[in-house]
Amino acid sequence: MSAGTSIAFHALDPAIVAALRAGGPDAYGAPAERAISDGSGNPCRLCLSDIPRGAGMLIVAHRPFPAPQPYAETGPIFLCAECAPRQPSAAPPPVVATRKEFLLKGYTEEYRIRYGTGRITPVPQIRAYCQELLARGDVAFVDIRSATNNCFICRVRRA
Asked: Is the pTM of the predicted complex or chain greater than 0.85?
């Protein structure tokens, strides 16, 4: 894959979010906590925008992997109580574009961290680093995580 090859930023699967909104269990088997956003940077993982002040939101434990295993990190995420999903896009989503830096990590097809790929990456360098990682045959996708809290933000795949 060359630096010009297309990549796409992916939000959470809308079916997962619909189940959580309907009271389904999170990664720890608990229902979502319901809260009101204070507008201080609660990024929704479905629309990939910050949840506006005063808007309803859900707080859940999420594991963006198909099954528990040693590399399947679980952590807190926020979701709008109501919003439309952001479609996969080549453009970084608003929640990425409005921050300073993120932790990026490459993963294999087997959902294992590819050691040596984890890097705190300034936002202007995210596209290039994702393209670099996805050019490798041993990296299937890249997860973007909070640089300060390690929370899952979104996933990047080859387009």
From this structure: yes
pLDDT by 10s per residue, the chain, length 159? 445 668 999 999 999 999 999 999 999 999 999 999 999 889 999 999 999 999 999 999 999 999 999 999 999 999 999 999 999 999 999 999 889 999 999 999 999 999 999 999 999 999 999 999 999 999 999 999 999 999 999 999 999
What sign does the dihedral 31-37-38-40 (CA atoms) show? positive
At residue 23, φ and ψ (nearest 5 deg) are: 100, 5
Q: What span, in angstroms and rounded, lies between the C-alpha atoms of 58 and 115?
A: 32
Indicate whether 32 and 76 sit together in one domain: yes
Domain that holds residue 26: 14-80
In the block, residue with structure tokens 């990682």:
133
Residue 61, in any domain of the structure: yes
* Domain end position, chosen among 80, 109, 128: 80
